[in-house]
Design goal:
With 355 residues, the chain is an alpha/beta fold. The chain has helices spanning 14-25, 42-58, 73-85, 99-108, 221-226, 236-251, 254-275, 303-312, 337-354; strands at 3-4, 65-70, 91-96, 113-119, 140-144, 146-147, 152-153, 163-167, 182-188, 199-204, 279-280, 292-297, 315-316, 327-330. The structure holds pyridoxal-5'-phosphate (PLP).
């Protein structure tokens, strides 16, 4: 058995894979594959509607918040957000907590002024900034709720008067938050809700239409809203697999239930990292991510040895990102506790042999 700890594209529930495979051969008993299915058919329109409604239901969104499934990944949102929300003379506030934040900052600068109100860069992104102020006139305040590469997470969402915008790519649907308090949320699906090729955007309609710039049709959120997220051909298969994952999430008890499991998995692994004399975590304790657990070995020359040792026992995808090194075990929603237990057992055994 392979335990898939990849950061993304990543693990999905086994039953989702089975249902997706079935739909490739025969979608919804139509005798056609989902891959050859027209997006304007009543069957697919129903898929899109159910996916949007289920996301709304699971996140307890109010009627002002619209759910969209768009192309282009989270990286396109780095520019689409400021294009829709920021005029050249205006300023947007950004928190710099990792590689993805800094990429979002770079794109925003093409559309207006950017005030980086806090950063953890000088300490290699090992913590979440705490004491900082956001100017009242900043059009919005952008955070990356979970830093996939360095393994830190905003446990508390900052309370400011500004419109909150969040890149939730790697912790979307992993915990309960007051999602209605955000003006805009975006998340590439391939981390925690589906396959690559689609990005979920949740946007409060009331924040749109305030800028003066001409926005290309396909980049204007309002057009996607008025067309029910079907402005052009949506990524049909990716949306369908997201729907299957959303149904699975609802069936196991929604965000309250998954949050409990995710905390349990993360606690198990961090306890092993803290107790095991060969390993350590680089991230401040209170800011450690429950999704992407990054860790290193005190003796870095052993890292290669441990990696091979783990791979031999079915552990896949724990090599850390090239920028942070060491290891990263991603514990997304579909990862069972038993796989995390297997990993901690392997770390424990390794310490007995090499410690
Ligand atoms: C993976 C990731 C991205 C990039 O997503 P793409 O869909 O590849 O554009 C952006 N932000 C965060 C936090 C990520 O984890």
């Amino acid at each position: 058995m392979i335990h898939n700890f990849n950061a993304g594209p990543s693990i999905l529930p086994k039953e989702v894979f089975e249902q997706a495979a079935e739909a490739i051969l025969n979608f919804d008993n139509t005798g056609l594959s989902i891959l050859e299915f027209g997006h304007r058919t009543s069957e697919f329109t129903a898929v899109m509607e159910e996916a949007r409604l289920l996301a709304k239901e699971l996140m307890h969104l109010d009627d002002d918040h619209q759910v969209l499934f768009l192309h282009g990944g989270a990286s396109t949102q780095f520019m689409q957000v400021p294009m829709n929300l920021l005029d050249p003379k205006d300023c947007a506030a950004y928190a710099d907590t990792g590689v993805w934040s800094s990429k979002a900052i770079k794109e925003a600068k093409l559309f207006g002024k950017v005030d980086v109100v806090c950063s953890s860069k000088e300490k290699n992104y090992s913590f979440i900034p705490k004491n900082f102020a956001v100017p009242n006139d900043a059009k919005y305040f952008h955070i990356t709720t979970n830093n996939t590469i360095y393994g830190s997470q905003w446990k508390q969402i900052p309370n400011t008067s500004n419109i909150m915008v969040a890149d939730m790519s790697s912790d979307i649907l992993s915990r309960q938050l007051d999602f209605n308090s955000f003006g805009l949320i975006y998340a590439g699906a391939q981390k925690n809700m589906g396959p690559a090729g689609v990005c979920m955007v949740v946007v409060n309609e009331n924040i749109l239409g305030k800028t003066k710039r001409a926005i290309p049709t396909i980049m204007d959120y309002r057009n996607h809203i008025s067309e029910g997220s079907m402005l052009n051909t949506p990524p049909v298969f990716a949306v369908y697999v997201c729907l299957l994952t959303l149904r699975w999430l609802k069936s196991i008890g929604g965000l309250a239930a998954i949050e409990k499991k995710n905390i349990e998995k993360a606690n198990l692994l961090y306890k092993e990292i803290d107790d095991n004399k060969l390993f350590y975590s680089q991230i401040d304790k209170e800011d450690r991510s429950n999704m992407n657990v990054c860790f290193r070995m005190k003796d870095e020359s052993l890292e290669k040895v441990f990696l091979e040792y783990a791979i031999k026992q079915g552990i896949s995808g724990i090599k850390g990102h090239r920028l942070s090194g060491g290891f990263r075990a991603s514990l997304y929603n579909a990862m069972p506790l038993s796989s995390v237990q297997t990993l901690t057992d392997i770390m424990h055994q390794f310490a007995l042999t090499y410690g």
